[in-house]
Queue: 3 jobs
Job 1
Amino acid sequence: MATGTSQAPFDILGDFFRGAVGMLEDQLEYEDEIAAVCDMFADQQIQALQYFQYAPLPVKRVFFPLHKGMDGFISPKQYEKLYWKPLKKVMLALIDMGVTPFIYTEGRYETRLEQLADVPKGKVLYHFETVDMKEAKRILGNVACISGNLPIALMEFGKKAQVVAYCKYLIDTCAPGGGYIFDFSGSLENTKQENLDAMFDTLDTYK
């Protein structure tokens, strides 16, 4: 699915240097410094991913797990400046190299969809953990491929009929017009066998 891994520059700073609490405090006191550091990290990521121009790979996709961009952790204004702008810089550099960014959003992403739409058409894959997929399809459907949002909790604790109904909802909402990959909200580790069978049966037979 991917032949490379990267991170949003904001997440590099938060995951490896400042921590979640440090990043919350820094957003209040050191916004311009965060912006400068994230721009530097973006340039470093672009340099580290140059192998895509030379390596003979079966597919060219880079996986980005977005750790601290979810609704509520960072304001919309700061998300644009500190999170999205440096991340987009890396994404556009990859697109210029013929590489598809595989953006794996973590947490709720309802308020970020407009920014995610600001990319070249047909060049990005977005996976969602928690979002209104109807809105995601409306805003991103003509721009990027979308995926995800089948709750893993539903697979583990839900009833068969609920799984069937949710699968049909995702197909009805996201499949028209293409640009959709069916997937879970996150990594599936435990599930009821009957729910897994119901999911595959629905995907095979529902039209």
Job 2
Amino acid sequence: MAAICVFCASSRTLDQRWLDLAAETGAEIARRGHTLVSGGGCVGMMGALADGARAAGGRTVGVIPQSLVDLEVADLASDELLITDSMASRKTVMIDKSDAFLTLPGGLGTLDELFEVWTTATLALHAKPMVLVDTDGFYRPVLDWLGALADQTFLKPAGLGLLTVTDTVSAALDAVERRLT
């Protein structure tokens, strides 16, 4: 099966519904027989995601910079915990270790990871599936802005088309699996 990297928030102050979404995402990845690749944190949605995958019998790979290990937020229960020297090298390792990418709600770090993997896809550095889970329209303002960029030719429509947008985790994983077969 596939190694699916999930980008999501690590904030400790989120509403429970976002933590539940992350836990269900991890569990669904595991139920489908995939390996979870994450940012290697044990807090917020990132921690709930990994816990959900393990609770459903899944394998987890965490990728985390040493600076976050030093802050004691590393997911030490990961089946494989890869420690990098920087946030930039963390993204490189996550991209290299993954067959597909799924983005859940998150903030600046989540958007940074999404845009990194998306930008590298537009440059044809990889052709891995990328799916944005737009639960409850969370990303609608960003998607509207990106559409406006394309309208003004700052973003090519083909580049915009590389990202699949769904509103559920199940639909997101279905899209990943279709692309991988």
Job 3
Amino acid sequence: MKALAGYLAGLLFGLGLAISGMTDPARVIGFLDVAGDWDPTLIFVLGGAVVTTFIGYRLVWRRQTPLFESRFQLPTRRDLDTRLLGGAALFGIGWGLSGYCPGPAVASLPGLSWPLAAFVVTLIAGWWLSRRMNPGH
């Protein structure tokens, strides 16, 4: 049941990205181009995500336990380290250069293109490199 719930959540997320046009890297790059031909569409998608998350967390926290786990698993670290800051910087640079982040990239796989393939290859290489550099994580 847990795997089915994860699949349905991923499917809903991917459909939302596709319907909102966020699988189009030109739209994302247009949003990031604040000094040029700026496309504000992404603000509405991000705003919808924030509202949905705000309401969703309020509903989830009313429960004693999650639906498919015995307890909530929350992060305990609060510090900023070089791994976090470096990863965030690499994520931002990759997002800005390609117009893709992992969610929209996966949702875009049915229409595979060379830029998308390059992004996915570097994404997988980054995951692999991260695991090799930090085997305990």
